[in-house]
Each structure stands twice: as C-alpha cells, then as structure tokens.
C-alpha cells in the first residue's frame, strides 16, 4: 500500500496567483500555517506554526529542496512527533482560461508510525487544498 498523499485540484485562478499563495509568507499565514521566515530559495529553512493539538506542539520545520518558479516547489516537512522529515511537493500546471491544476504530493511516511501520520495529514491536506486555499485565492482576487 502506497503511503504517499496525493491531492489534485483545478483552481479558477492563474498560476502566478497560486504560486504567490504557496511562496509568500503573508499568504501562507492566511491559508496554511503562520510563518514569517518562508523563502522560496533552495536551502532556506523555515518554521510554520499553528494551534497545538493533543500529540502535536503546533510546529512544523522544513527546508526548501526545489524551486521552479510557477511550476514546482518542494520542501521537507517535520513535526514534533515525526522521526524523520517527509517531503511536500507542489506542482502547478496552467489550464485554459487562466486556471491552474495544483497537485500536492506528501511523501515519506515510513515505518509503523507512518500509517498514523499519513492518516492525520491526509485529512488536513484535503481541507487545505479543497477549501482553505481556494477560499484564500478568492478573497485575494477580490481584494485586487
């Protein structure tokens, strides 16, 4: 059984707007988790924070692994109870009519704890890619 999480969603927003939502600290803080130090540069370390929950202190640390502007972004993702970092990869594909296909892959859920961690992350990523990000993009486009 594959342990990777894959979510794909078509967004009614141009690639540039989706890329900005994935890479700008203020945008990430609005729809994903709070950050002040995210930089879309290979090797850059960052911290994301959210409200703590039972079994999780609310902190994710990561390092940017790959940046292809408006095409692909990959970084490590490690929470307080993860024995080793996992990898989050975002891929953007332009569609007709200023739309974007966004693909999220979250890989590296290994070992016995991997099944539980995958289950915990899967629902969160579904919410972020299908509800929170589209809502943010809609409000950002209305603000322009």
Structure description:
It is a single chain. By secondary structure, the chain is an alpha+beta fold. It has one domain (5-143): Alpha-D-Glucose-1,6-Bisphosphate, Chain A, domain 4 (2-Layer Sandwich). The chain has helices spanning 15-23, 25-31, 112-143; strands at residues 5-11, 45-49, 59-68, 72-79, 86-95, 99-107. Strands 1-6-5-4-3-2 form a 6-stranded antiparallel β-sheet, covered by helices on one side. A hairpin with a 6-residue loop joins β4 (72-79) and β5. α1 packs across α2. The longest helix has 32 residues, at 112-143. The N and C termini lie far apart (44 Å).
Task: Describe the secondary structure blueprint for this structure.
Layout lengths: L4 E7 L3 H9 L1 H7 L13 E5 L9 E10 L3 E8 L6 E10 L3 E9 L4 H32 L1
Antiparallel strand pairs: 1-6, 2-3, 3-4, 4-5, 5-6
In short:
With 144 residues, this protein is α+β, with helices and mostly antiparallel strands. Helices cover 33% and strands 34% of the residues.
Give me some keywords for this one.
globular; 144 residues; alpha+beta; 34% strand; 3 helices; 6 strands; 6-stranded antiparallel β-sheet
CATH topology: Alpha-D-Glucose-1,6-Bisphosphate, Chain A, domain 4
Query: What number of domains?
Result: 1
Coarse morphology: globular
Protein structure class: alpha+beta
Detail the poorly predicted runs.
Answer: none
Number of strands: 6
Q: For this structure, what is the CATH class?
A: Alpha Beta
The gyration radius over C-alpha positions equals 15 Å
Number of helices: 3
Reading side by side through the largest sheet, how are the strands ordered? 1-6-5-4-3-2
Would you tell me the overall average pLDDT?
93
- Helix-residue proportion: 25-40%
**Largest beta sheet, briefly?**
6 strands, antiparallel
How do the SSEs run, as a string of H and E? Answer: EHHEEEEEH
């Amino acid at each position: 059984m594959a342990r990777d999480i894959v979510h794909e969603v078509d967004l009614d927003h141009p690639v540039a707007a989706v890329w900005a939502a994935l890479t700008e600290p203020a945008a990430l803080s609005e729809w994903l988790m709070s950050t002040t130090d995210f930089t879309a540069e290979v090797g850059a370390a960052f911290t994301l924070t959210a409200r703590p929950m039972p079994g999780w202190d609310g902190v994710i640390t990561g390092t940017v692994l790959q940046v292809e502007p408006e095409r692909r972004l990959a970084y490590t993702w490690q929470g307080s109870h993860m024995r080793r970092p996992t990898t989050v990869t975002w891929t953007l594909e332009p569609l007709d009519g200023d739309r974007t296909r966004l693909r999220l892959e979250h890989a590296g859920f290994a070992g016995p704890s991997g099944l539980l961690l995958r289950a915990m992350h899967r629902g969160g990523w579904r919410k972020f890619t299908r509800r929170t990000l589209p809502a943010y993009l809609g409000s950002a486009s209305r603000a322009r």
